[in-house]
Amino acid sequence: MNPSYDYIIIGAGIIGLSMARTLKQKYPLVKILIIEKEDDTAFHASGRNSGVLHAGFYYTANSLKAKFTVDGNRQMKAYCREKHLPINECGKLVVAHNEEELATLHELHRRGHNNGSNVSLINIKQAEELEPNVRTYKEALYSPDTASVDPQKVCQALKGDLLSIGVEFSFGTKYLKHHHQTVVTTQGEFDAKKVINCAGLYADKLAHDFGFGQKYTMIPFKGLYLKYTKNKTDVRMNIYPVPNLRNPFLGVHFTKTVGGDIKIGPTAIPAFWRENYQCWENFNISEVTSIAYHEAKLFLTNAFHFRNLAFEEMQKYNKDHFIELATKMVKGIDRKGFTEFTRPGIRAQLLDKTNLSLVQDFIVEGDEKSLHLLNAVSPAFTCAFPFSKYIVDKYL
Predict the structure, then answer these.
(1) Mean pLDDT of the chain
(2) Are residues 209 and 242 in the same domain?
(3) Taking a C-beta distance cutoff of 8 angstroms, is the pair 94, 54 a contact?
(4) Predicted TM-score of the model (pTM)
(5) pLDDT in tens, 243-278
(6) CA 152, CA 52: separation in Å to the nearest integer?
(7) Domain CATH code at residue 6
(8) How far apart are alpha carbons 354 and 352 in whole angstroms?
């Protein structure tokens, strides 16, 4: 007889952990197993992101991201306070460079208002009172609720909570296949009434194995951050540029970490395999073949201006160019103070193969036997708690 569970959750990132937490809150007696191919929680996107808790003004009102970011910000802060985890509530300014970007800034303000986000348009003098080093055109968008946390500490705290209420973990356990309700892994077979796929970079492949998400494939994008080591005082708060609303990336910006450090990034450089963090680490020829095929299609068709995006992002491997993009948002900073890259991350971005577009929102597919959470990219960390409650209430 195989070990049997009510739910098997695949993936011990922030979404998998939050799903287990919410299930146990609602159904205390259910038996849950979380399987994870790595040796601990948050090895990938959940532990490699910037740690910024977003405030909910980037997203269109009918999206799941808009629905959960404002509440997620509040709930994650409350959890960190309850667990005595560090928070840096430094806020954020979004700055413009010209009239066109100013119009987009106003669109972000409108979206924020519709989503219930606490944002306001302020003039240059008000912006400089908050951040003396900021440079903007006429106005800036101020978000006092944007904050930073330590993602790995949050995930470790959740892991401790789950262990204390009977959730089981099986680390170093890679999903291989399933037959009926039996999940076959590198550590044996497990039976489940329902399988919940929270596998991040591999969520699409697992979904395909269960017959879901067939029109989607993963296109990974590498995110690099460059740390400013001269001091922690030249920038007080997060400073972001006006993003291109046609794609899901926010552009190179200044981040204040939970410890007060300053860093710039991220890039959104097309990667060649899913865990293509650096050099030939985790090289996978089958992934290279599939991803190269789809990226070649995007490049030739220039869908969503992919060709332009690829050229722009590849230039960011040039450190001077990377720094130049950030310095446009401040009056002055020592370029030589940017000395070290932090751990790179990979954005698990879905591509809709039917129209060659990047998917902008979270995707949920499944049936009575399995559920698949796809495209759980930024601001998934911020949204994790209310998003999980939504999934449990609607689908489970």
Answers:
(1) 96
(2) no
(3) no
(4) 0.96
(5) 988 888 999 999 999 999 999 999 999 999 999 998
(6) 13
(7) 3.50.50.60
(8) 6
> Residue 304 region, left (φ>0) first, then alpha (ψ -120 to 50), else beta?
left
Quick: pLDDT tens for 187-206.
Answer: 999 999 999 999 999 999 99
- 347 shares its domain with 225: yes
Domain that holds residue 187: 1-51+150-214+359-396
Buried/exposed code over 251-275 (b: 16+ C-beta within 10 A; e: otherwise): bbbbbbbbeebbbbbbbbbbbbbbb
Same domain, 233 and 306: yes
* Nearest CA-CA partner of 255 in 225, 218, 231: 225
- Are 334 and 371 within one domain? no
- How much is the CA Rg of the chain, to the nearest whole Å? 21
CA distance 294 to 3: 40
Query: Would 89 be classed as within a structural domain?
Result: no
What CA–CA distance (Å, rounded) separates 350 from 363?
9
> Does residue 74 sit within a domain?
no
Q: Which two tokens stand for residue 385?
A: 């708690």
